[in-house]
Amino acid sequence: MDAAERDLLGQSLRKIMTSTAAGPALDGELTDLGWPELLAELPEVAVPLVFGLLGETGTVASVLNDVILAAAGQDIGGTTTLPYAGGSWLVWDRDVEPPAEAGAESSGPTGAFAVLDPALPLRRVEAGEPLVESALAAGRRALGWWLVGSGRAMLALAREHALARAQFGRPIASFQAVRHKLAETLVALEGAEATLLLASDDFSSLLAKAAAGQAALTAAKHCQQVLAGIGYTTEHALHHHIERVLVLDGLLGSSKQLTKQIGATLRRDQVAPRYAHL
Amino acid sequence: MDVSEFRTGLRAWLEDNDLTPGPDGSLAGQVEQLGRVRRALFDAGWMRYGWPEHVGGLGGPAVLRAVLGEEIASRELAPPNFYALIEVLVPTMIDYARPELAAEMVPRLLNGDEQWCQGFSEPGSGSDLASLSTRAEQRGDTWVVNGQKVWTSLAQFAQRCVLLARTGPGHGGITAFFLDMDTPGITVRPILAMHGEEEFCEVFFDDVVIPADRLLGKVGDGWAVAGSVLPFERSTSFWHRINHLYARFDHLLAEAVDPDEGALGATYLGLHTARCRSHGTQRRLADGLPLGPETSVDKVLLGTSEQHLYDTVRELLPGAVELTDSQWRPEYLYSRAATIYGGSSEIQRNIIARRLLGLGKE
Predict the structure, then answer these.
(1) Where are the alpha helices (DSSP H) in A2-111?
(2) Do residues B27 and B198 lie in contact, with contact meaning Cβ atoms separated by under 8 Å?
(3) Catalytic-labelled residue, pool B87, B197, B233, B306
């Protein structure tokens, strides 16, 4: 697939994601667009595009299941248990309509628990089946792209606000303290994206998920500060993205937990792996 | 020659040719080691790849220089900050010096015979480089320079200098020269830096006469000359430095007393992030794409991860920086400058805000 075709696919995906209701309706549209075939044949193109755009548009689909099932060599379309930071197990339900109103509680079919982000159809279960390493890695790469996409969405909101909001007679974007927070956000997101672009094996996928989680949390922190009062209300879209990245960071291992795991691996092997060869 | 052929040949050659630094760790000793490494690599041809034939090179893509730097830095054969000076000097000569001058001079730097320095910053012009006030006045066939430079690395060892001087008002009033450091009227005063070395110098110019054929580019091209340094500083040089930091991280892994896995993991993740970003920049350079303000992201990531590494060194090797005179001490101290030199992190964030995020003027 060349760059022009990829751009075209990106446009189609963006259109679907911004015009279709999150959840089962979007799952259906993605299937119609050829998601199963793309995932089977061109995952290195399809996953960054689809998950990055889920983040940027702020919508929700249950395609993480497919990525993990496909990487485990199983049929897509179902669900699997997913490890969460701290030892919890979750199921990402399909066929659950998201709550119509902001702030409403999630209502999974059985024993729903209060997920911080009510638009994510996540349900806690007692126990789960550990994922094979390649499936875990594929899921982490997908979540990494989602986290970076959400970070970019937050940065776009904060940038827009900084240019529009005037205090002391000038846009707050003209104050260096504000500019540097947004610059730091871009640095974090660009760095994380670079690790995602070079994520190939299990360990580099773990690294990319850790970098992406950290970058998304940095974006949340800085953008919340720049958006200040309005960003703290549920009348502004920022809170959706913040809640989303807090939840997605913990899924398949939080940046904090993964970072410790990185250190443990390095201590065991006594050498720092060099990825990204010229 | 392609990258893998180059790397394989180079590695085999380095196996057979021991360039390990001797016991003299002084600044003069390091400069001598740098000359030794360059000469050996030049004579064997490795140093000449990636540079055009008309300046004594053997041709091939610039990425070969990054590979060479990586192999040198990984083996800790030469101080990476000195080794990489070539990357901010030679491209300028290729782009702006008279062809005969470039052909005559560049081989002397590549083959280890000479050191060169870069006279850009001034006491009154640091972040605001374009405000520089060292003056060059035309007198017949010559230019006469008066003024002062500072932070000029290795000026006391240098035979030549790439100098920016003012010949008129504004950005268009800056002109670049290539001058001999033994010209009468030049005084070099090394500055003892915090890490214990006299790496940076002040250079004073008192009626220093430069022949007109030593102009780099035309009168008023100086700002463009300064900007031309950026692509290779931000790609090839950074790649050297990142590989040096990886080598030092391996030492930290071996020596760490405090097994703080979170700290080790976070430090490595920072290096890995800077490396991945730099890799993308190298690829864009190799594809012939221009490098511009987006390399400010690379600069912030590199400076931040370098300081993070040495902060972790200090934490996980308690006392190594403060109580012993191991290599960690000067390196820790030197890392404090990583967010200052080459355009401070604040300047980089200003560029990112203005040019990449479109936040308008301050």
Answers:
(1) 3-19, 24-33, 35-41, 43-57, 63-71
(2) yes
(3) B233
Q: Where are the domains of chain B?
A: 3-114, 117-225, 229-356
Nearest-Cα residue of chain A relative to residue B275: A276
- For residue B65, give how far its alpha carbon lies from the nearest alpha carbon of chain A (Å): 11
Q: Which of A163, A260, A270 sits opposite B262 (nearest CB)?
A: A260
CATH 1.10.10.10 is held by the domain B229-356 = no
Q: What is the mean pLDDT of chain A?
A: 94
* E strand intervals along A76-117: 81-84, 88-92
CA distances from B38 to A198, B109, B203 (A): 32, 8, 26
Residue B362 contacts A where some CB pair is shorter than 8 Å: yes
Residue B307 pLDDT: 98
Q: What is d(CA B145, CA B206) in angstroms, rounded to the nearest whole number?
A: 7
Chain B contact set for A183 (CB, 8 A): 300, 348-350, 352-353, 356-357
ipTM comes to 0.95
pLDDT the model gives residue A100:
66
Does the beta-carbon distance from B273 to A192 stay under 8 Å?
yes
pLDDT at residue number A106: 44
In this prediction, the residues of chain B whose per-residue pLDDT falls under 70 are: none
Span A204-218, pLDDT tens digits: 999 999 999 999 999
* Ramachandran assignment for B258, one of left (phi > 0), alpha (psi -120 to 50 degrees), beta (any other): beta
Smallest CA-to-CA distance from B107 within B20, B174, B39, B155 is with: B39
* Residue that has been written with the tokens 């996409």 in this structure: A149
Q: How far apart are CA A123 and CA A92, in angstroms?
A: 6
CATH fold for domain B117-225: Butyryl-CoA Dehydrogenase, subunit A; domain 2 (2.40.110)
Taking the alpha carbons of B337, B342, B347, B352 in that order, is the dihedral positive or negative? negative
How many C-beta neighbours within 10 Å does residue B187 have?
A: 12
Residue type, B223: W
Partners of A163 on chain B (C-beta within 8 Å) are 359-360
Among A133, A130, A153, A131, residue whose Cα is nearest residue A239: A153
Q: Name the residue facing B3 among A159, A192, A278 (closest C-beta).
A: A278
User: Does the beta-carbon distance from A183 to B269 stay under 8 Å?
Assistant: no
- Which residues numbered 79-108 in A keep a CB inside 8 Å of some CB on B? none
- Interface mutation vs chain A, best among B348, B349, B356, most A CBs within 10 Å: B349
Q: Which positions 63-122 of B are in contact with A (Cβ < 8 Å)?
A: 63, 66-67, 70
CA distance B5 to B277: 24
Cα-based distances in Å from A247 to A122, A147, A168, B306? 10, 10, 37, 31
pLDDT at A116 over 90: yes
Q: Containing H/E element for A106?
A: none
B5 catalytic residue (yes or no): no
In chain A, % of residues over pLDDT 90: 92
pLDDT at A197 over 60: yes
pLDDT at A59 over 60: yes
Q: What top-level class would CATH report for the domain B3-114?
A: mainly alpha
d(CA A36, CA A31): 6
Quick one: which of B44, B61, B53, B51 has its CA closest to B1?
Answer: B61
